């Protein structure tokens, strides 16, 4: 069991028996680690805000304040990325640091595979500038070939089959960056001009979205992270 899973399991074990305590030795035997490792894990949980306290005495141990804990959090990768984007609207407010801290706690509570998927999805989102960005009108599948009906700047509607690479957000608009099979090159599709789309079952070959592919000065491009 890796450390992230063990931290989550310790909280769930203490939640299940609360308000009764579990000793460090009992937890060490339960998770097949040393008492010192358990003590370090408990300290890390306490520092992250988990309400665990030590109860002294021969029958004492570690207790969880059940009244002040949340039930297990099962965010989807998309939900975690949506929260990271929402934090961009806290720029310049007194609550920016608190929002960043809350996101880190929620991501830490996710299942390991979901956390990894969320980080991969966040890596597909590039932002221009540091200011607020508009809501995204379409939520599109990154890992599937899409069939689009798209309106260009002249108002002409075309049908495209694309391999999504990621998103670029700027204060005015959102863009879906994709390999366009019609044009045989990387293209940017303004999401408010997408008339309709269908996600196919086809998984496209993996391509990496690089800032240099976008012809944008590197200093203006920021990759979204789940650190807030």
UniProtKB/TrEMBL annotation:
<feature type="domain" description="Helix-turn-helix type 11">
    <location>
        <begin position="6"/>
        <end position="62"/>
    </location>
</feature>
<dbReference type="InterPro" id="IPR036388">
    <property type="entry name" value="WH-like_DNA-bd_sf"/>
</dbReference>
<dbReference type="InterPro" id="IPR051534">
    <property type="entry name" value="CBASS_pafABC_assoc_protein"/>
</dbReference>
<dbReference type="InterPro" id="IPR013196">
    <property type="entry name" value="HTH_11"/>
</dbReference>
<protein>
    <submittedName>
        <fullName>Helix-turn-helix transcriptional regulator</fullName>
    </submittedName>
</protein>
<dbReference type="Pfam" id="PF08279">
    <property type="entry name" value="HTH_11"/>
</dbReference>
<feature type="domain" description="WYL">
    <location>
        <begin position="142"/>
        <end position="197"/>
    </location>
</feature>
<dbReference type="InterPro" id="IPR026881">
    <property type="entry name" value="WYL_dom"/>
</dbReference>
<dbReference type="Pfam" id="PF13280">
    <property type="entry name" value="WYL"/>
</dbReference>
<dbReference type="InterPro" id="IPR036390">
    <property type="entry name" value="WH_DNA-bd_sf"/>
</dbReference>
């Amino acid at each position: 069991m890796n450390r992230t899973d063990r931290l989550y399991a310790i909280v769930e074990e203490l939640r299940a028996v609360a308000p009764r305590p579990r000793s460090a030795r009992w937890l060490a035997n339960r998770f097949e680690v040393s008492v010192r490792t358990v003590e370090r894990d408990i300290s890390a949980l306490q520092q992250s805000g988990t309400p665990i306290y030590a109860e002294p005495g021969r029958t004492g141990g570690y207790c969880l304040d059940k009244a002040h804990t949340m039930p297990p959090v099962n965010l989807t990768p998309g939900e975690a990325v949506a929260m990271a984007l929402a934090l961009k609207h806290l720029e310049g407010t007194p609550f920016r640091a608190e929002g960043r801290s809350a996101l880190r706690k929620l991501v830490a509570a996710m299942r390991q595979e979901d956390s990894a998927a969320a980080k991969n999805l966040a890596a597909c989102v590039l932002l221009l500038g540091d200011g607020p960005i508009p809501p995204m009108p379409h939520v599109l599948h990154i890992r599937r070939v899409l069939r689009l009906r798209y309106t260009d700047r002249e108002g002409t509607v075309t049908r495209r089959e694309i391999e999504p690479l990621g998103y670029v957000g700027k204060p005015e608009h959102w863009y879906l960056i994709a390999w366009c099979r019609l044009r045989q090159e990387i293209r940017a599709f303004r999401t408010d001009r997408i008339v309709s789309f269908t996600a196919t079952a086809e998984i496209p070959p993996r391509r990496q979205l690089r800032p240099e592919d976008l012809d944008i000065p590197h200093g203006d491009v920021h990759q979204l992270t789940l650190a807030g």
